[in-house]
Model the fold of this input.
Amino acid sequence: MGFRVSGRAAGVRGALLCGVALMGAPAAALAAEESATTVDEVVVTVRHREENLQRVPAAVAAVSGEFLEKTNTTGIAELVRFVPSLQFQFVNPRNSQINIRGLGNAVGLANDGLDPGVGFYVDGVYYNRSATASFDLIDLQSVQVLNGPQGTLYGKNTTAGAVSVTTASPSFEPGATVEGGVGNYGFYQLKGSLTGPIVADRVAARLSISRTSRDGYQVNAVDGKRINDYDNLTVRGQTLFVLSDDVRLRVIADYSRQHTHCCSALITDLFTPPSGASFTALSAQFGSTPRLGRVQVDSPVKANQDTGGLSAEMTWRMPHAVLTSITAWRYWDWRPASDLFQSALDDVRQSAVEDDQEQFSQELRIASVGENRLDYVAGLFAWHEVLEARAVTEFGSAATAALVNRALPALILNGYRQNSTAKYNTTSYAAFGQLTWHATEALSLTGGLRYTSDRKRGTYDAVTSGGAPLLGPLAAFAPIRAALGSARSYTVRVKDGAWSGHLDAAYQVNEDVLVYGSYSRGSRSNGLNLNQLPPGATPIVKPETIDAFEVGVKSRLFDRRLTLNADVFHQTDKDYQANTVDPAILRLYLANVPKVRSKGFEVTASGRVGDSLDLYGALTYNKATIVRFPNGLCPIETPLPAPPTCSFNGAELAGTPKWTMALGFEYRRPVSVAGREAEVYLGADDSYRSGFSNDPTNTIYGRLPSRNLINARLGLRAADRNWDAYVWGKNLGDVDYFNSLTPIASGYIIGFKGDPRTYGATLRLKY
Done:
């Protein structure tokens, strides 16, 4: 799994490292060029006001839609190539997590009773399920990533940060874009957008469509069919109503669908656990042979999901302020099928959780405009979610041998089935405000406060069926069945209120240098455990709070040819809501880790050399540790007799690489095509992360090694960007890497593999 640089990849990486003595984010792409030799200024709206990024006293990464187009980036998972503090862990869409600075959602399988620690917003609308961030993002204006707690400005209180996506609005100037791409593994992608007036100066519309398809990267050794493919359809329609010179209404409807033969792991290695279990012997008992390095699953596999919604954003521009109302309804449906233990054995015939989710949100916000001694933002937020999760687990003929003991009769678990339904109902209300006092032309002081009230109600109902009757002597085996699946029903309710806030001081040393310091308090409301819980686990998980300190500097140097920003952060998270997994049976439940700490530094920069070369890069060092967790689940390698719990005091926080880095460049030269101005260009980016554990128990078998991925593109485009044709390659070194590794108690390790080397060509036309 180690990285090996091919000759071609080494050359690209050498160009990157020699050409970039900077470390920073690709901020240069949000605005039009001011000159040929200065870095473009970036305008962001992270504080609900249009501001120069260099004047915002916070760690913010801003990536434009144009930059995402140029780098062939279509989703949040690929955005991590440019924003190292952002991590996107992916097993399948439902079981994905967005983390910032190591915090957010703990690694592991998803739990419907846990609100995300990183807020995901599209056009101001909060999306509460991380799976909805796995769809293609199309027709973008910008993506902005905010590091640290977001408790005073954004709709839903989040402890780790926020990702804010803004799509292109309808325009009264007619325009159209058509894009087509093809590549290996049967890849093809078609995109299009159309915008223009419906009623002159009063009503404009925009329609955007994207379709992406790709064959599976692996072949299932059981049936010989390709597996882990991708198929995405996204449609977004918008209408802009200019009701008066000061009032605008933007209505957005969208629908996205993914129906895929996905997502299965392969068996990466065998090991002997303290129990002495041998997966080779177990497989032989049922006439099978483990195929290392191959997907080998015997159960149906699919990862189908649909999402969509409707939102209305009204803005009323008053003499000294803007009033904004955002009303939204959304839904998400999830229909999976998977092989829980990712093997050819008939151990678990069915293991799936189907989700039906709906949410409604309303935000009302007022913000000052123009230059004032006092700038302010204040608002109200209401949010309601209902979710129903239907789970099924059915055991097969090999279940007893795989999960309990090879010497016991198969009838203990064979055919035994548990069906459960969990229902979640959440209502949240909040009031928030933030005030900035420009004490002098150079000194600004900001304070913000928010109060959030959350009410949650959940019900859990499980029934069992099937399997041979355990009567007479067999009754002694009934506790085994009950431990793996039993009939139970319960209802839980919880009400919680929390204050959060923000303080910062910013000093503009001169026109090009800003220094700042800040403190933020964030919180996350109670979680609900609505599933079969092991002894000692509770249905209600305590609220989480985080205290974050940050000191930073933002600068523009060398006549604004270089933008260089840096910050140091220290975050302490109390009662961290973590996914905890029983390694014996992969049962997931929520628990509180008493204290977690994340501290480190971030450096970002972008530079321009002449009018031909842009450089960008970013570096993050993050030491994320569990300060106190004396009663965690023991890793699978713990010698027998294993204690009921193990101490993780001082251990690293799973899912958090200590070092992450992104470097990139684009070099261009003017040429003439059919007598018209054009340019030929070469671009590349290099994404690195150090090794880390991706398993909640910090097992030695779940550690991912460091990896380095290089992408590149070579193309020809019009000087006015009306057409662009290029070839591209991703993971040019064909690095063999994994997104996760998980040991199974039977004595083998499963891994979800990252994308291999891919390549293709894209043509884009604009009118």
Q: What stands out?
A: Residues 7-19 form the longest helix (13 residues). The first strand starts at residue 43 and ends at 44.
